[in-house]
Fold this sequence. Notes:
Number of helices: 6
Radius of gyration: 21 Å
Helix content: 55-70%
Distance between the termini: 46 Å
Amino acid sequence: MRVNAALKGKQPEKLLPFIGNECLNQPKGINFSLEDYLKLVDETGRIIRDDKRGAISSSVSKILTRFNIPSDNWIKITSEFGKLFHGPVGTLQELTSYGEHLGKRPRHFAKCCQYLETSR
């Protein structure tokens, strides 16, 4: 039905139309407010610095929850980023796609990413 209609340059009335790339009209940006970002940075810094006292509050914890990042993993990632990662960073699926795009195997980058992704 759809193919026959397409050959005639038409849209079948009984079927939903294709609307194109669903991400095409999505706004670009980070999916939380500047205020939330500043809270996250401030509280992270207070935990990492030896001369400061702090903890991840419940309001900032909600930001991490939205991104599916456990607080312990967030602190580890932010305080040891250079030690943990020596190449691309992302989910195993993203690293696989990246490697395929480059024609390389990114699996050696994936070990730490996978650990931090699955240790929730």
